[in-house]
Amino acid sequence: MTDKRLSPFDRAKLRREAVIDYSRHSINRREFMFKMTAAGVGVAAATRIGDAIAAPAPAMGVKRWAKQADATIRFVKGVHAANDAEIWDGMKAEFEAAHPGITLQPEFYDWATMPEQLTAGYASDDPWDVVYNTDQVLARWVSEGLIADITALANDAAWAGEREAIAPFTWDVVNIGGAEFGVGVLGAVFNIWYNLDLFEAAGISEFPTTRADFREAAIALTGDGVYGFELRDSAANSAFWDWFPWIHNDHADILSDDLSTQNVSPNGAAGTQFLGDLQSVDKVTPEVGAYDWDGAAALFAAGRIAILHDESWRTTAWDAGDGLPFEYDVAMAPFGEDGTKQTAMGNFGYATISEGSENKEAAWEFVKWFASADVINPYAATIGLQTVRVDSVPEYNNQHLEKIQAELVPMVQPPQIHVNWAEMVRTMWPEVEKAYRGEQSGEEAMANAAEIINGLV
Amino acid sequence: MAQVEFIQVGKSYGETGAVHNVNLTVDDSEFLVLLGPSGCGKSTLLKMVAGLEDVTAGEIRIDGRVVNYVKPGDRNVAMVFQNYALYPHMTVQENIGFPLKMTKVPKDQIRERVTRTAAILGLDGLLDRRPEQLSGGQRQRVALARSIIREPAVFLMDEPLSNLDAQLRVQTREELLKLHERLQTTTIYVTHDQIEAMTMGHRIVVMRSGVVQQVGRPQDVYDNPANTFVAAFLGSPRINLQTGKLDGATFGGDGFVVPLNSKLAGAASAVTAGSDVALGVRPEDIEVRVGAVEASGDKIALDGVVSLVEPVGSDLYVRAQTGNVDWMARTEARLPVEPGQAVTLVLNLEHAHLFGEDGRNLAS
Amino acid sequence: MSDITLTSTEIGAAGQLSLSPEEHKREQRRYLLRRTATAYLFLVPAAVFFIAFLVIPIGFLFFYTFHNGGIISPRVYVGLDNWRNVFRDDLVITSIKNTLVYCLMAIPSVFVISMFLALVLQQATRGGSVFRSVFYLPTLTPYVVAALIWQFVVHRDFGILNMTLVKLGRDPVNWIGDPDMALKSITMLEVWRGVGFWTLLFLAALIGLPKELYQAAAIDGANAWQRFRHLTIPLLRPTIFFAVVMATIWNLQLFDSVSIMTNGGPQNSTATVVWYIQQTTFAYTDKVGFGAALSFTLLMLILVLALIEIRLLRKR
User: Fold this and answer.
1) ipTM of the modeled complex
2) Which of A251, A357, B332, C114 could form a disulfide with C198 if both were Cys (CB 3.0 to 4.6 A apart)?
3) What's A398's DSSP letter?
4) Residue B336: which CATH number?
């Protein structure tokens, strides 16, 4: 892969094209992020879903790949870059060179219609052999018996070293009902960007780690055409990603750890109230709804927002241009009320083998290859995403992405796994919006949200 | 009641002209017919009076007032269209009352005048019908009613009878004349039908290619056509126009010679001997005889051979060849002739005409 | 003179029929069958499409309203659960309300503007075809491009609307971020997109109107407004009838612009019925039955409204 590595400029260009490409689809990237719910779930949650499986498919035995007959592996994944197909032409050649007898056939789905396309694919007589699944849908496919149990393969002694190199939390996610259904490969992180020049001008040297300091800083930074703070506010822009760390840090989440009931009320009230006050009382942000996601990022890039809660890939987009005309850095939302917890939000994707595949051994060879450091790190660097390997990091050529990989990825508290999670978040979101606009308190918002969530548990 | 004057009136669309230099006065209460083939500009002229077409040259005056720049609705004219232009979504009553409604006449007055007008035209029982439920003749009468209800100064009629069948056309012609007699409204009537023009017009205006050819009482125009176009346009079957040369007191045609009578000789004096001229003799001025006939007075005898016999009931049209030309004669219905038969053609030159090279009647 | 009725035998002697009455009957039947068979043959493609792509899917849809799952998960009969949920769901009520409010704003606006433009274009002697294309362009613009263009209209700082307001000394408006404004902004976008289509439709109808009627009306003293009021509107009745019914059917299905511009927000203020169907059927894939029941509800809503309109607008 080394000889194929792209220049920083090319990489930035890829990233930019990827964003533009997403926007061509009506429900583009924000929907991708939304649907690409992610990793990290307690064993209790996994068990719960596992219980739903009436008769788990028999686990596969370990069988080393040996060329018995020619096999073709069809692999489908979401589009991660405008020229993803081109990138995969190269990867296909590399894979096939290393695996005589196996033909790789990469295919792509649109993020906008991912559930429909995968549903159709799984329902057909000839499903893909390997599917790149985000964990929310992963759980659903597993519960339908569509994904092969790879416990034996993943625990094969010969692969133990590689298994060790992949973050343990991903193994928790794919472990459903005591069996394993995929291998973690890629991820994305949501974080805070802040303008160091504006901080310096305001005499603030450290990024605040308490809410009180954060508020003080945001107020101090506001004025003269500059907003101290901004975060996404509409469901259309997947605003919940930016909201989660603020309630996670108060030990709240959509659901309780055992997924049996809501956990937004009362724990989520303080964080929601805090964000609402910043927007509707302190007015350190633009009016709620005034800017969409890209609009806010553009304001930050123009030096008119001091603290922006956004996503990690932004930095490659900025690099793709001339960079930003000021120094900026990466941060996380401050600790919660009790000062004990600080997290970042993130989500992840997994390589899975279809139960309907007739070439599961060959498919496993491909999954191992895709998850390996030599393949996934350069690919992640090219498309600007994070990996889940703990033994190595992608060579980003971007200090911010390096810092995110090193400092934030370990702090990620991903979404919970529940079949109705997406619907819960979507349906309750207007309550948070009302709190952001000051039309109701954080407490009221969370009480209403709790009712909605419990209706969907 | 009004006089309509055309003073150097012209109409052109860009470079092409549709009407050229029309000078004409339509007298008060007159029934004037504009006659000509389609495309001769007669309808355009009428629409210029109505205000539906702009006047690009000259002036049109109604009762002395220049109306070039007056909106159609303010010219106090009414128009009957060839296809009647009834409002399909309105009842007969609403159609007739429309002009009054548009000029804000009180409702009860409208009702009363509609009733009165409808009675005049025998539309009493049809007031609640829609145009689609009426016969052609009834529609025509509704259109008339709609135009007379305003009591306009001038009626403009654009081929109002051409969509009716032959019988109804004759009947409506009479009704129109009676109506005119009763209302005495100045009327300009456009038609391409010479019978309508002859029977209805006080005067007729024959037009061709936007130019007025002749204006006059119908019989005068028929008897003394100003040129070959007018001569050929009026009369059925068409006038016989034979080209030839003047040689002293004779007209030398293609294979035949006609000695001129005094009237034609007088006309011939207007041009030099040997000029190319055309002799015009109407079919009804040619008699077909079997056997030899002596010429006498205005009557000239020519030998001919019958080539076609067309009985039309009341008359017999006979085509016979003399020299190298054909003559069309309109003769008595029961004349026993048949194709190939040798006959004598008796030309009555009393109403014959000589036309110059430019088509102009030499007598005028 | 009295009419005399003659019978044919008085005029000429009757000949012999070459076919017996039975033979005539048989031949006639065959002849009619051949004629109708051709007609049915031509109808087959349309009927196949109608059945395959409309009747059968609607049948399936109705079937699914009584089930959960069915695509990859096993289909489970749930009785009237989906129907009960449809009428219990607050967002269903909200989305129906939003959709109706939108229709009430959008349809009259787009018709008034389109009719005005059509009348202007009809009069235009020069450049008419250019303007026709210009007005139609938004209709041809893909939704994503239209939404992008619209960003330049409603953008907080650089949108022409706010720039104009600020120039006039007014406060900028939060066009799509304010729950009170978002649906109106969506309406503006839809009107902008629809104007070209309806203008062309009205223009085509206007051009087809008999010129003589207008000439007659002009001579009858009707001014431009009276001609419009007493001639154009009644004469365009069939067109307007078609337009009102079609616009209702189309606009009740508002989805694309909502999906792209606001995704139902803020605070569900632009949540429409089809948007919600899409959300429940595809975004939450296990709610096929609920989405089907909601689709059926929309179908009924469209049917009822269209029938009411047909009743009201049909020729008196």
Assistant:
1) 0.82
2) C114
3) -
4) 2.40.50.140
